[in-house]
């Protein structure tokens, strides 16, 4: 039994990029796969070396690269394994792997920018929580002492808040636990499950526009592969299926299986790409326009990423800072207004 099937998490994006770049150099350089991997393995370290050695053993048994990757599903994400299989079966493994490296670079850059956007709001949230824990109970208790010293009836809201802070040991651990869970989820989003926003990366779906950004990147990869294959006069239907599977986009994969091969939109491709696909299906020369379309989708994705980087801190501050401000207003100013009404 392959030891990587049990107890091993998937490659991080950095590890997957390093491994994929290795395969790109082997395939694009037309070097013997087994011999090159053996040489590379000697210079590798840690898990990458162990995974490479396992792949070498599978290849020596006559397995294809895709089959060798399938033997290690706990290390290689399904999207990556299907991408490699599509490249092998289509005869364009080098181009597919090169496009996938570009996609991983985009994911790493996006994740880094999101991390920068989240940092400041998280610091605001931590400060707000510390103020709540260390000052909230004392303020409420001070209000109650003032009411009692003036022989005034203590409002029910103050008694409720006082009972909450008196039993702070029951709830003080909840926020650190949630924050720790969020941190773990963010750290786990660095593995290759970010390719499909699954597992620890699933929470990233809550960020507005992120799914659209990833789709634009996949569309760019799809269009770029289509352009390369059509320039090499690959039959249109076959090119569509290979490029769709290599992109990892489920809508494109589903659409490529139908008889119209994505030439009718049905929400699977943008209108401009639909038009190019219709031209390509009629043997028109659309290789160069598709290259430009790929660049356009990539620029749109990069622009959307910059907007997320700019707007995410404001959104987090409004949600976190606004929520904290509202809570403090209810906890401090509401009792103060009630006290003034009782005095006058």
Question: Concise description?
Answer:
The chain has helices spanning 13-28, 33-43, 46-60, 65-70, 78-90, 93-149, 156-166, 174-188, 210-231, 236-247, 250-256, 271-281, 287-343.
Structure notes:
With 344 residues, the chain is mainly α. It folds into two domains: 3-76, no CATH class; 108-344, no CATH class. 74% of the residues lie in helices and 0% in strands. It contains 13 helices and no strands. It has helices at residues 13-28, 33-43, 46-60, 65-70, 78-90, 93-149, 156-166, 174-188, 210-231, 236-247, 250-256, 271-281, 287-343. The model is unreliable at 1-8 (pLDDT under 50).
Mean pLDDT over all positions:
78
| Strand fraction | under 5%
**Proportion of residues in helical segments:** over 70%
Query: Got a strand count?
Result: 0
Question: Rg to the nearest angstrom?
Answer: 28 Å
Terminal CA distance: 81 Å
Low-pLDDT segments, ≥5 res: 1-8
The topology string of helices and strands comes to HHHHHHHHHHHHH
Derived structural class: mainly alpha
Q: Major beta sheet, specifics?
A: none
Separate helix tally = 13
Supply the number of structural domains: 2
Question: What general form does the structure show?
Answer: elongated
What labels describe this entry?
344 residues; mainly alpha; 2 domains; 74% helix; elongated; disordered N terminus
List the helices and strands and how they pair.
Elements (H helix, E strand, L loop, with lengths): L12 H16 L4 H11 L2 H15 L4 H6 L7 H13 L2 H57 L6 H11 L7 H15 L21 H22 L4 H12 L2 H7 L14 H11 L5 H57 L1
Helix pairs in contact: 1-2, 1-6, 2-3, 5-6, 5-10, 6-7, 6-9, 6-13, 9-10, 9-13, 10-11, 12-13
């Amino acid at each position: 039994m392959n030891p990587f099937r049990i107890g091993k998490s998937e490659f991080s994006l950095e590890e997957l990029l390093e491994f994929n770049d290795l395969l790109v150099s082997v395939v694009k350089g037309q070097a013997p796969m087994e011999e090159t991997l053996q040489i590379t393995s000697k210079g590798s370290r840690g898990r990458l070396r162990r995974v490479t050695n396992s792949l070498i053993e599978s290849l020596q048994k006559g397995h294809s690269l895709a089959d060798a990757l399938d033997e290690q599903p706990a290390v290689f994400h399904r999207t990556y394994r299907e991408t490699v299989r599509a490249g092998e079966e289509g005869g364009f493994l080098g181009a597919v792997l090169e496009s996938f490296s570009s996609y991983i670079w985009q994911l790493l850059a996006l994740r880094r920018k999101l991390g920068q956007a989240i940092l400041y709001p998280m610091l605001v949230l931590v400060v707000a929580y510390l103020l709540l824990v260390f000052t909230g109970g004392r303020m409420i208790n001070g209000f109650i002492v003032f009411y009692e010293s003036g022989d005034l009836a203590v409002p029910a809201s103050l008694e409720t808040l006082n009972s909450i802070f008196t039993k702070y040991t029951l709830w003080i651990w909840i926020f650190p636990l949630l924050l720790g869970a969020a941190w773990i989820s963010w750290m786990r989003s660095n593995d290759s499950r970010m390719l499909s926003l699954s597992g620890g990366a699933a929470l990233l779906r809550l960020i507005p526009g992120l799914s659209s950004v990833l789709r634009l990147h996949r569309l760019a990869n799809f269009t770029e592969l289509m352009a390369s294959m059509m320039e090499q006069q690959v039959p249109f239907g076959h090119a569509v299926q290979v490029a769709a599977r290599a992109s990892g986009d489920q809508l494109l994969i589903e659409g490529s299986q139908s008889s119209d091969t994505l030439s009718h939109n049905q929400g699977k491709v943008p209108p401009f790409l639909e038009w190019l696909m219709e031209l390509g299906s009629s043997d028109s020369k659309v290789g160069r326009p598709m290259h430009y379309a790929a660049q356009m989708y990539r620029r749109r994705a990069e622009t959307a990423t910059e907007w997320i980087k700019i707007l995410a801190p404001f959104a987090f501050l409004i949600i976190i800072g606004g929520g904290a401000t509202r809570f403090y207003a209810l906890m401090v100013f509401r009792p103060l207004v009630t006290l003034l009404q009782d005095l006058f």
